Amino acid sequence: MDLDIGAIRDAIENGRASLGIELGSTRIKAVLIGEDHVPLATGGYDWENRFEDRIWTYRLEEVKKGLTGCYRSLAEDVKNTYGVELTVLSSLGISGMMHGYLVFDKWGKQLAPFRTWRNTITGEASARLTETFDYPIPQRWSIAHLYQSMLDQEDHVKDIGFLTTLSGYVHWILTGQKVLGIGDASGMFPMDIKTRDYNRRMLGQFNQLAADAGYSWRLADILPKVLTAGEQAGVLTAEGAGLLDPSGRLKQGIPLCPPEGDAGTGMTATNSVKPRTGNVSAGTSVFSMIVLEKELAHVYKEIDLVTTPAGDLVAMVHCNNCTSDLNAWVSLFGEFLDSMGFKAEAGQIFSVLYHLALTGDKDCGGLLSYGYLAGEHITGFDEGRPLFVRMPDSRFNLANFIRVHLFTSLGALKTGMDILFKKEGVKLDLLFGHGGLFKTKGVGQSVMAAAMNVPVSVMDTAGEGGAWGIALLASYMIYREEGETLEHYLENRVFSGESGNQVMPDARDTAGFEEFMERYTRGLAVERAAVEVMKPFPVSGTRLNPIDRIK
């Protein structure tokens, strides 16, 4: 498609472009879009979390430095591509990693280091709150971090005046507004999907816990105000504009949409915000986000409950392991080719092996593997051991070998999803896929469709990511018609005519995956024995013989 550079330049100069900025775990990314929602320019800034005092964290001065650097990169891309300065926007949106713990006193002083979603130090609080609320409270949720700080009697808790997430913090320093989009807020504290606000019963229960511990604040007073997609969440202040653009070119007064979490922007970027749709990200880890038609009947530790940016209930299944072990095997085959004197690109090796897997037996020929490099809470493992097992009469060939590693990469996800499908009767019409598993066209989709027994679609635009998703939410705030839902806006204005590359489930593949899952579930005892017997190697400088290692 030919770009009308003149029209784009005019849109940028006259403030008709929207900007989204997302703070991810390793990169801060900015995407500028036009009125047609097509990306016009991008910017980025690389950063890394720190492990300080046994806490995974980012320093807030790094957050500010990263915002400035990312915006500078975007402005330079605009200048180099279109020959104009970026001075005004139609709208702006901020997104960030969900959950975590950012606390300040009533004067805005930070009280404790930022504790990110990656920290698993709130086990006691998570378990107690889940029992008290009769509602799943994962360790990474903000309320779990707050309650754990209370249980640990940390001195700063008495002085808390504001508790927020990363996106909420950035939005606050840009606008002065202590607000949060409902999707991100649902990872802080449980939501009431009828009122689109924090659950009042659970607020009362937590207030009682705080009062019993001697704290004078009330939870609703320290949490950010909840907003839904389409609402205006303040405007860029002079200080905020100066932080993003120290050159002074960017004007203040730009309206901002509610800040959101990366899960919500991922749903937006894949057009999976309406009930009976969902998206799955499959790479090193794998997680699914399924938009529900109603609340679940029971509480499951395997299922997290959050919302879309519009406030509809979402069931999230998050698994620690997906393709890492599979990638290691593919790398081994690459080493073999090198040793034989054959040179092949990694992408070609993946493509050949993945397509070969499609020719294997539907149930993987009786083979079994577990790609557990790490623990897997869905199946009850604190640690993992990559494992491959076969019977003497299993059909052991290359096609089945690769096929079983593809299947097992989704084994834990399938375990969690079956809770939704088989125990709760959740219906799903379409699943959107993104991530490394889907890079080889058609193969990852076929395996996912077999596992979930639903059509799986991959869109070209899904690769634009969460920064594009929050830019879409910023655009929705400005350009939606009166009463137009986010679902309608995305379906008819952003993704109209784009169905992506869709793969339908094959009944024989689905039956084969179910047969594999019976073997997978029974074989968890073998994986558990491997964890118990295969202990980590000793630290450097000591040696054990093989018998000693397994004692």
From TrEMBL:
What the entry lists under InterPro entries is as follows: ATPase_NBD, FGGY_C, FGGY_Carb_Kinase, FGGY_N
Q: Name one Pfam family in it.
A: FGGY_N
Q: Name one GO biological process term.
A: carbohydrate metabolic process
Q: Spell out the protein name for this chain.
A: Carbohydrate kinase, FGGY-like protein
Q: Carbohydrate kinase FGGY N-terminal domain: from which residue to which, for each copy?
A: 19-243
What family does the entry list? Answer: Belongs to the FGGY kinase family.
Q: Which UniProt keywords apply?
A: Kinase, Transferase
Gene3D superfamilies named in the record: 3.30.420.40
Supply the SUPFAM superfamilies for this chain: Actin-like ATPase domain
Q: Does the record carry Ribonucleoprotein as a key word?
A: no
